[in-house]
Design goal:
Helix content is about 40%, strand content about 20%. The strands form 3 sheets. A 6-stranded mixed sheet has the order 2-1-3-12-4-13, with helices on both faces. The chain has a 5-stranded mixed sheet with strand order 8-7-9-6-10, with helices on both faces. The longest helix has 21 residues. The protein is globular, with a radius of gyration of 24 Å.
């Protein structure tokens, strides 16, 4: 009898151990955003939103900080991220290629200008930029991708001088003579002092595009409606205050999106950048 009892105990132990091994491990939900800031600043900006997402989803949400654009792009293409907040060309690419769904975005639109000094009398259109150097944020930032799209023939593509930082740094590089032209966001141009705006001329404008967007992977599809509803609530606005302060200035809420807003924006990546 003791042998049988011992045998049953061993059998129960083996069965329990097997169940533990075969049970799916609850993976953490990965939130990320482009590497535009230091890790410390990025965690400060996105921290409240991440904690709010944990409450909505009911699972552990972690912030994964990409070390640079190469790592960010690679992990995105490999479908590593579950929740992403970034520009619409990335959102469009994920929607088309790895089944992400866009849920909410900042209000307003994104638009870019190519500007040069008023005294550059021989630069008055995109065609005049051939063989010149343009200051812009590092590829694949949307502003730089917008410039690439202006040139259907890569032979005539101007040289992009990548500037670290913000559009303020890009404008400063132009003023310092590091390049003949620069790519600015339209709202950054609009807030320049009157004499600064008079010192430059606009030679190209992009079409307006949706503002920065939150997308989720197919792994969260069952919860997309509750996430959307909660992000567009008053509590969602509070959770996004740091983001609004950093990106939206006067924006104070997330708004729902429509998939049509992102149609073909992935071409800003796939048509001009190798690997996409």
């Amino acid at each position: 009898m003791q042998v049988r009892s011992f045998g049953r105990c061993i059998l129960r132990f083996v069965l329990c151990f097997s169940i533990v091994l075969l049970s799916p491990v609850k993976a953490e939900i990965i939130f990320t955003a482009p590497p535009q800031y230091s890790e410390e600043i990025a965690r400060e900006i996105y921290g409240p939103l991440i904690r709010y997402l944990e409450l909505i989803i009911g699972e552990n949400v972690v912030f994964e900080y990409p070390s640079g654009w190469r790592e960010y792009s690679k992990n995105m293409r490999e479908d590593r991220y579950d929740i992403v907040f970034d520009a619409p060309h990335f959102s469009s690419w994920r929607m088309k290629h790895i089944e992400h769904e866009a849920l909410v975005r900042l209000p307003g639109t994104l638009g870019y200008l190519v500007v040069t000094h008023q005294q550059e009398q021989y630069i008055n259109s995109v065609r005049d930029l051939v063989s010149t150097q343009i200051c812009s944020l590092a590829s694949p930032n949307l502003s730089t991708m917008t410039v690439y799209r202006l040139f259907e023939n890569p032979v005539y593509m101007p040289q992009i001088k990548e500037i670290n930082g913000t559009f303020t740094d890009v404008y400063r590089a132009l003023k310092e003579g590091q390049c003949k032209a620069a790519v600015l966001r339209d709202v950054d141009y609009d807030v320049l002092a009157p004499d600064e705006r008079k010192s430059v001329k606009i030679i190209a404008k992009s079409e307006p595009m949706p503002e920065r967007t939150i997308t989720i992977s197919r792994r969260l599809r069952a919860k997309k409606h509750i996430i959307t509803m909660m992000l567009t609530s008053v509590e969602g606005s509070r959770a996004g205050e740091n983001i609004f302060r950093e990106y939206g200035k006067q924006q104070q809420e997330f708004i729902p999106v429509t998939p049509e807003e992102y149609k073909d924006l992935d071409s800003l990546l796939s048509h001009v950048v190798w690997g996409w």
